[in-house]
Amino acid sequence: MTRFGLTLFLCVALATLCVADDATMNLEIDHILDTVAASNCVFIRNGKEHGPADAKDHLNLKRRRGKKYFSNADEFIENLASSSSWSGKPYHIRCGDHEQQLASTWFNAVLSKYRGTQSD
């Protein structure tokens, strides 16, 4: 294989891996947001309660506008989905009669469960 051929092969292989990583990331983030929307949970942002559909819309907005701040679902949770970019205050979630918890804890649990079902 020529030097050019090898370089071309490596570039194509790397691009393929990046596309696969993006697809996985998008599936994982979609799952988190769909789980929020389908939940009976209240999303608490800057002291105000929001329903599941509003929470999903807000997180999708942050996802679209903040693409440079994450390259995987874990970074999306840590850098965008867990706290206000305006106030810096953490987001919380309260589901049914359960106690309020940090949104990051809830999102990470959803992601972990999803990843566990994907590897079966």
Can I get a quick summary?
This protein has 120 residues and is α+β, with helices and mostly antiparallel strands.
Shape from CA axes?
A: globular
Largest sheet: 4 strands, antiparallel
Distance between the termini: 39 Å
Number of strands: 4
Query: SSE order, as H and E?
Result: HEEHHEEH
Q: Residue ranges: pLDDT <50 for 5 or more in a row?
A: 8-20
Overall number of structural domains = 1
Q: Roughly how many Å is the radius of gyration?
A: 18 Å
Beta-strand residue fraction: 5-15%
Strand order, sheet with most strands:
2-1-3-4
Would you mind describing this structure in some detail?
The chain is α+β, with helices and mostly antiparallel strands. It has one domain. 62% of the residues lie in helices and 12% in strands. The protein has 4 helices and 4 strands. It has helices at 3-38, 52-65, 73-81, 103-118; strands spanning 41-45, 48-50, 92-95, 101-102. It has a 4-stranded antiparallel sheet with strand order 2-1-3-4. A hairpin with a 2-residue loop joins strand 1 and strand 2 (48-50). Helix 1 (3-38) runs antiparallel to helix 2 (52-65) and helix 3 (73-81) packs antiparallel against helix 4 (103-118). The longest helix has 36 residues, at 3-38. It is globular, with a radius of gyration of 18 Å. It starts with a helix and ends with a helix. The model is unreliable at 8-20 (pLDDT under 50).
